[in-house]
Design a protein that fits this description.
The protein is of the alpha+beta class and about 280 residues long. It is built from nine helices and eight strands. Helices cover about 40% and strands about 10% of the residues. The longest helix is centred in the middle third of the chain and has 17 residues.
């Protein structure tokens, strides 16, 4: 505590401040320190300099952080990122409200002419099953709202390939038949209260094809260019190998009031749940 030079009596308790605390708590303590007569400004400046902490300015009605996830329905790396990073981060308290999520399932797909008919058809990296899975995800996003909790929960279930975990045995993602792809999607939508008949009607129609072409065009027109799946873009910039630090990127980019989950001490893990 500080004491008066003349009386030797305490004049104000100095808050304990560390770099690992919530940034908003730091800012409050900083304001209190600066109110101390004579020495307040120099003490606050010294603490700020020693901790490397910069006062964070909060922007009213701050826009959400745009996160574009370019992926493929049967891509093992995409499934790992979805289940170990993206979905766990967005399920942490307050995090989903910071993010405008856009899942774009196309990845390394191509439009090629059919050898017999000459008609342009979508060819996916992991086969026809992946093309179907991509269209189901696109229709889900279109019908539920791309950033809605219901979409996120259904998408998470499909990426885990385990619609009723732990009640249902895990489906091995890379060895699905087309009927298994539909069965898995149907189970996930049933669990989440989604009308799967409407979704399947969309995915098997011209609308599903249209959404798939739009997703492929969006992927192929990226600047900087798309390189591989999973490909994660935050506010227009790809974060490449740093994708597993998605939470830190989101917290640093958001300009509004941050949730407790964005406290520096909670950003140290490579991804949620890391030891």
């Amino acid at each position: 505590e500080l004491v008066s030079i003349t009386s030797g009596k305490p004049v104000l308790a100095v808050p304990q401040v560390s770099r690992s605390e919530d940034p908003l708590s730091f800012d409050k303590a900083d304001k209190v320190l600066r109110q101390i007569p004579v020495l307040g400004e120099s003490i606050a400046d010294g603490i700020k300099s020693a901790t490397g902490h910069e006062t964070r300015k909060v922007v009213p009605n701050a826009p959400k952080v745009r996160v574009d996830f370019y992926m493929e329905a049967l891509c093992p790396g995409c499934q790992y990122f979805s289940t170990h990073v993206l979905n766990p981060v967005l399920k942490e308290r307050g995090m989903l409200s910071l993010v405008d999520l856009n899942v774009v399932p196309a990845g390394n797909a191509e439009l090629k002419p059919d050898p017999k008919t000459g008609k342009m058809e979508m060819v996916c990296q992991h086969g026809e099953e992946e093309c179907e899975g991509n269209k189901i995800m696109l229709c889900l996003s279109e019908m539920l709202g791309r950033g809605s909790k219901q979409f996120l929960d259904t998408f998470d279930c499909m990426e885990k390939a385990d619609p009723n975990s732990p009640q249902v045995s895990r489906i091995v993602s890379h060895n699905k038949t087309l009927s298994e792809t539909y069965r898995m999607a149907k189970a996930c939508m049933t669990v989440q209260g989604v009308d799967y008949e409407d979704v399947f009607a969309c995915s098997s129609s011209g609308e599903g094809e249209r959404l798939a072409v739009l997703a492929l065009n969006a992927t192929q027109s990226l600047s900087p260019k798309y390189e591989y799946a999973p490909w994660v873009v935050v506010d227009g910039m790809p974060i490449k190998e740093d994708a597993y630090s998605l939470k830190e990127y989101v917290c640093n980019a958001y300009q509004g009031v941050l949730p407790h989950e964005c406290s520096p001490a909670l950003l140290k893990d490579y991804y949620p749940g890391a030891a």
